[in-house]
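Please predict the structure of the following assembly.
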Amino acid sequence: MADLDCTVDLGRGLRLRTPVLTASGTFAYGFDAPLVDRGALGAIVTKGTTLRPRSGNSPARIAETPSGMLNAIGLQNPGVDAVRREYAPRWAAWDLPVIVNVAGDRLEDYVEVVRRLDGVPGVSGIELNVSCPNVAAGMQFGVDARLAAQLTAAVRAATSLHLMVKLTPNVTELVPIARAVADAGADSVSAVNTYVGMAIDLRRRRPVLANEVGGLSGPAIKPLALHAVWEVVPAVSIPVVGMGGISGPQDALEFLLAGAAAVQLGTVNYVNPNAAREVLDGIRGYALERGWSDLRPFPLRASPVPSHA
Amino acid sequence: MSVAVLARATVVARSAPMEGAVELVVLDPAAANIAQPGQFFQMGVEAPHTLLPRPYSVAAVDPDRGRLGFLFSVVGAGSAWLSSLEPGDRVRLIGPLGRGFTPSPGAAPICVGGGLGIAPLVALSAWLVAAGRRPVVLQGAREAARLLPADRFPGARILTATDDSSAGWPGSVVGLLETVAAREQEWFVCGPTPMLQAVIGLADALGLPRQRIQIALETPMGCGVGTCLGCVTPAAAGGYLLACQDGPCVRADRVDWSRVEDAFHG
């Protein structure tokens, strides 16, 4: 049987051996989930990392909802310097690229975090979390095309690493924002982050989450996320990394058919540590059954520029 | 720390040892060989519309027969699904996870459980007895029917308390603890947050150092392994402890009790 070339070139030197990544916030910094098969992964995306350490929100931080979960962790992380000093040297010894998710609430802070990660051995790329509120503008960077583009351009100027911008779906129109960050220098976009939601405790008569609202993930959002990817793919000429509620091979295949160059697995890692392996096996099986030699035939629609170089 | 394993374990027994609780005994020899009292397992749930595995501390560890026992109440769709499993059914288990109890050799061990908080103390009591110790187990419940029978604690001294005075000490298990408390003891505690806070208050009043109290934390959990950062408890050193990684069993002096809220919602 002919073998399948599963590699994905996301651009600017970020080549993945498989199209299966872990999603930010569901895999910490790559050291805490020993049951997940690293051999199935193309890259790890880390927990959102900020300039200074953050202790995060009060509990309760998570709540299960129908076929989903809400989280409001509050960016608990040790800060970029600890990441650079303690984690990056260990990543440098891995055969698996690590993409650091970067968060902040001032443009200058994002830039500084990215500057401190640039050229650090073990750091293979940046994923920009644009779902943080901008303290000056009072709104999220990611909900406004102009703000999102400004942030992307500023970060672009501070690093030669692959720059992936993670889009928030909590917007009226996603496509203009995707176009704006692509034009501002993003090498890829990942879509989508969690949907804002909440749950209320009837007995205690208050929101379940201490933060009141949180991000909804899990199978509940998959059709929404898939549609977002379907919309964004033809609108940009850079690779789109799809995510949102992928719970197994079937879901991942739908994202690839929608035109995603790769997929990120998030909440499913909590449920099934074998998910990454099962998803990769499912992708391989689907492609091999059709006699494909690589992943390029996946997108149902011709894209402006091939996502799988 | 032990290394967690992923297994599809076979249910070998299901029973209702007391009112409002279900006990599942499963065959999982690899995990039964390494599980320690106070550690927990993530149990996969396949009920419609549920998602996350349910974390349960292990109530019985039998390495000779490769068995693990779990004792829990039915509070929602996940625990209801688990409680409906029959002998021969399979359940996905990840574990053992987290840090268990670490009894010190000298001090007299006192186990204090409120409600289903008794679960990890069943395993701890058995472990202590096997190690030649004679623990005192204090079990509190709303009513007599909700007490785990004393024969589940062979070799231990059992004292009970009920809120409705239907058995044992009339009132809170913390009131009962006060009658036997002494400064040279070591306490192992699991139960609702208000009970934990009362235990800490009693220890402080008595002069029993908080580092001689080990608490098994109960909290909603996502991943169970330290990646989601969902299961936090305020830390005395600032920031938070992760129940899944720093605990679930933690020394009481590591917790900032002034910031602990009763956030557990089953």
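Chain A is about 25% helix and 20% strand. Chain A has one domain: 8-56+75-194+217-289.
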